[in-house]
Records
---
Amino acid sequence: MNKYSKLLIEKYFEEHSFVASNIASFNNFIDFELQNIIEQNKIVEPTIIPHNIDEFKIRFDKIWVTKPEITEADGSKRLIYPAEARLRKLSYAAPIFLEVSAHINGIQRESFVTQVGSLPIMLRSKYCHLSGLSKEDLIPKGEDPHDLGGYFIINGTERVLINIEDLAANKFLVDEDSTAASKLVGKLFSEFGSYKIPHSIEKLNDGLFYITFTRVKRIPVVAIIKALGLTKDEEIMKHITGGEQSDAVFVNLYEFVDIKTEEEALDYVAKKIGITQAKDIRIERMKEVIDKYLLPHLGISEKDRMTKAYNLCKYIKKYIQVATGELPVDDKDHYMNKRVKMSGDLLADLFQVNLKVLIGDLLYNFQRIVKRGKFPSIKVVIREKLLTSRIYSSMATGSWVGGRMGVSQRIQRINFLETLSHLQRVISPLSASQENFEARELHPTHLGRLCPIETPEGTNIGLRKNLSLLAEISHNSDEQVVLKQLKMLGLKTA
């Protein structure tokens, strides 16, 4: 290492830390993601309500987290610092508060603030008591001034959430697949809230394009496009090819030339996927399937159907371009097509799923009491320990939503370098028992992002990686802010 490299690294770490990206991810989760999750589940409507009431809604408003505290055996509450949590085998966590209101026939019945659970707090994040303290202030608190933070304390044990490398959601990739029925397969993971639905588009020997997603297996794409409301063959051709004649598209359109209306298309698809009820019910159920499970990242309401139709046309266009050699096959291992899920993203997934469980439990308790002829307050049916225990359980065992294992690990304190290495780890969701040679190999896009040397020997080689020394992970940006900046630089929009 020459003197300039040494100086650069020294200056970098004067302003940054190894775990700065992870701490920023956690702060972002509490500042923004928590409220976004509440917004997605804002209105809850019980199905069983008292007979004399027409409409009853439970509404969730603002959510916030305070600083870590502990409730003693006598019921008193006080602040807790990490050193005490380690010594007393406690969790370093802060209470989560939620504004809840109940509305009868549009008129507010009750409104209150309640604690819905506790959330483990990352050390050195802005919600930690150690945030902003100098090295001299940390020593009286029982902390190592050189400790970077970036981990959690659950029942006295220091645990770190391992970064997970995954394919980018909501991005259509066309790749060769030797195991599939067609040579090329277009894949997309549509992610919206707790939904993560895999979609695949393939072209079979009959020349037709087929789509597969939840509850729908190998249905012609043109039939789905017509079911979404884009019924004119001319319009479909225009959105796929830009108005040029294409034999590949023409074959697909000719096959479904008899389907003239949206209703006919919905009925055709419903029959294909095995919905056997009366025609009206069949069509309604089909509408529900395409609204809920087809490209949910574009929206889950009726008004989003045309957007979905246009996007399906775009995907077919890309598939044809790859098949004809106009565009190269997408490289799944290119880091442009990957995303690293950090602690904030992982906690958002966990909170989202467990909030649904809490809402389910709230509805069950409420409806059970209503059946007995009583009309309870919402306050008495919210169980705060349910959310807390489920979050703690995942953090303590490492078993995460989506069937992932080993997401939370006990931090390795063999030496300081080993600890730093553990905080920088990135793992792939691929199975260690399968070959996956391409995924294990070094890729040119790893340069400056991932360490080419630090990876275990044996079955995990290439699947467990570590961030490089000066690597920093960016977070989602507001689209409008980015567009504004691009327009200032001279971007013209149609």
---
Amino acid sequence: MEKRICILFVIAALLTACGNGETAETEKTADTAGGTDTETAAETLSEKEQLLAALPTGDYGGYDFMMLNNESNFAYTQMGAEELTGEGINDAIYNRNSAVADRLNVKLTENRVGYAEVTSTMKTAVAAGDSTYSCFWNESAFVAPFAIEGSLWNVKDLTALSLDQPWWDAGAMADLTIGDYLYFLVGDLHLMFRESFWMVGFNKNIADDVGIEDLYNVVREGAWTMDKMGAAMAAARADLNGDGSMAGNDRFGMTCYEGCVIPLFIGAGETLVERDENGIPHFVTPDDRFYQAYEKIVSTYFAKNIDYSCIGGKTKNIDQYAAEGMDAFHGVFLSGHALFYLEPIGSLKKLRNMDAEFGVLPYPKLDESQPEYATYIANYAAVCGVPVTTGDPERTGVVLENLCALSHDDLQNAYINDTLSFKYIRDEDSRDMLDILFATGRFNLSDQLDVGTIRAKLQSSAISGSNTVAAALEKLLPAAETKLDENIRKLTQAG
């Protein structure tokens, strides 16, 4: 844009210099007119035209850009669309792909299969040197082994990618970066990434019935903590039939499955992986704050002596929901028998026909001294890998940069403003909460690289209320560190 303006000014100056002796006033008029023309020209460029002008381009002669993509039973994974249907997400994808195809002279083809088939197909392709697929998406935990095996490009070497642009999630990718090496792309072009952010859903009817304060305001004030959530759970818990035990028709403070433990740690601002001055991750010995978070998680959500929580299949007497084709923890919330519901955003689809009113919150802080909220991005979030067998890695970078940039507005608007805001969430406050969630997403690197059994141990220990977790972690961490070092060595050698 700046170059265009400069050229116009140069032309105006040359025309003035070659004139036939006009007066200074005429010259002034000419200069003014030239400036006006320039401004008008600039104004005629739409925001999308300005965006396109700044993006890398090329003519790839009708190249078939094949994308292998995973299918999911809970999240949007669509990358291709055959026609306009009037459905917001589909049409945004169709228009985006058409624009990129026309701009770069490529054909965009999507092959969408289950995550296991993505893995097996790409393993076979890489082993055979098959360049059929220019890129692929799969759950992050299944893409990581490809990077460790040396089968992926370090995407920092793809010069067409501008990873500091807002259509890429720089914060999330920073969590996945090892020194100068990054093998995962995440951003606006694939919706399963956003669908994998964890949230706290809450039943607004129960909150009103038991006199719980406005939780949206609590969040905005920075005061949404585990203690606040625990107090609300205690207020909501009720043995409705008075039989002395908690069952599916009673009212729980919270419902979730076992996978909610790590999101609670991340929400508390805790992780066992830190980075040195060179950006290389390593495990750290758990400190007092970590164990404070552990004790708070146990006592608030999982202690054996309280029955405020319905945890997956571990809570008794809730078999009636299985007969209706639902997991117990889903059924308890959908039927209006739990205040809180801990799940990824993609599960909002399951709440569409819920009778009670509900809202969305971020995960609570450990305490108010914690500077900001933190949101766990699940290890089944879709990430993009560029295989070493891609025919032309720079071409792949150009196509992906264009796809992601053109997803930033239309596709994300269709997803957040049309689908989430109008189909799945029910109030403007929840829309504000989603902004907080998306701004604070964090990957847990040890999840992605599958090192040791740290995740499993924390999960099982918290749910059981174990008081021996410190000793268990002390025993597990050396082996986990060795495995992490081994994986990092392979990743940096591969790059």
---
Amino acid sequence: MTSLNNKISPRRYCFDISGIIDFIGSSGKYTGIQRVVVMAAWSFYDVLPDNQKANVYVGFYDRTTRKYRCVSFNQVKDFIKDADLLAEAFSIRSRRYGSNNPIESFLKKYKSNPVKYYFHLWRLDAFSFLKNDAKFLKFNTNSKGWRQLRRGRAITEIEIETSRVTSVNASSIFRVDDILFLLDAAWQYTHSSKISKIASMGVKTLTMVHDLIPLKMTGYTDPSIPSAYASWLLSSHAHTTAYLSVSESTRKDLQQFLESVYIEKEIHVVPLVQGFDRPEGRNLAVVALTEKIPKDVYADFLEVISIEPSLRMYKTTPFILCVGTLEIRKNPMRLLQAWKQLIDRSAGDIPKLVFAGQMGWLIDDFKYALEASGNLHGYIDIIERPSDEDLSFLYRNCLFTVMPSLYEGWGLPVGEALSFGKTAVVANTSSLPEVGKDLVEYCDPMSVSSISDAVWKLISEPDRRITLEGKIKKATLRNWQDVGRDLIRIAQEI
């Protein structure tokens, strides 16, 4: 810590949370990428020497005033990890437009079909990003009008009234050589002009690239997204001092792209964590009850009391866990086929496969296969939108996890499993070996047999699983403080 105190300059540091404010205005909670932003910012603040903490801020684009505003991190440090508390502090509320809005009426037709709904939603986002006003003429609006309507996953307008925090205009905060961290999915930002203006003040901007999925796997996204993503990368370098990547694999992909368009920019790798962080529970009724129950007598009861009742059976049911959005890139169809092989191989004597995550892109074949087979004769369960408490419970009680993804920028679920002392079957591609290291079993995600064989090895050879779990216990896993230190180091270097 002494070295940090000696080297830190009196710069001001700001973490953009515009995307988080938009997201919790519609969903009310954090998912993977929002949690990364929040935890990275909080850890940076936590690791920073005390005499520098007053120089840390969060920033957001206020659509009411159309200004970029900043809030001292000291004001949000106690509740920023909790989406509910952050929404309360900023008085974030969604105001729905009437059903006579042409775009809302158009999207409403697809509400019963999530694939088509999100396809059209993100397609309009891409057209708006490209400022393709012609695509909005039939809705009697333009790309700017769409951006004004688009807040979250529904047609809403996020109204912000900072009742518990005091915000100020960015112009009164930023100085030359200050640092603005853009750690969210920056390519989806609708306030790029504000970021450019801040950069023009001499503020150094660090832009995080989580992955290059739209460019590496174009067939697995909305057809309009790759061009929008490429356009953002091509334009972002103008206001970006240096890029951040979440893995060496992503750094190589980004470097390759930048070189192909003759752009030279530094890229700093900030690996994410091998851990699981969740907000502290605020269920006072549960807290009061658990305080009256001896933990040494009713340990199992205490574990399941706050868990969704439908999940409590997994305390005693052997299962293998797969966490993440169910989309084609996550390879659910091959995993299902691998489980069919395992059922045949073992005469049915295998654990359940439990998917925990929301339905996503291009998985109609997977859905049809599940329906036609009766969830593979009852061997597959799907838990949509599990809470953090539910996920924690599932991680603790699974035999191991499986993640045969075709491509990942980092692979948070692998790291989360390790933090619970659980090994995993993991694809041997992209960034996943950086997360799993020598603590997991690897497979070829393109081969059903390879996935099946890797899972079977951990099922049929308990000693193999125990050996890997023993290595996990001895391993030094990467945590959020490590991320915070990396961000401080990079901020010092640029």
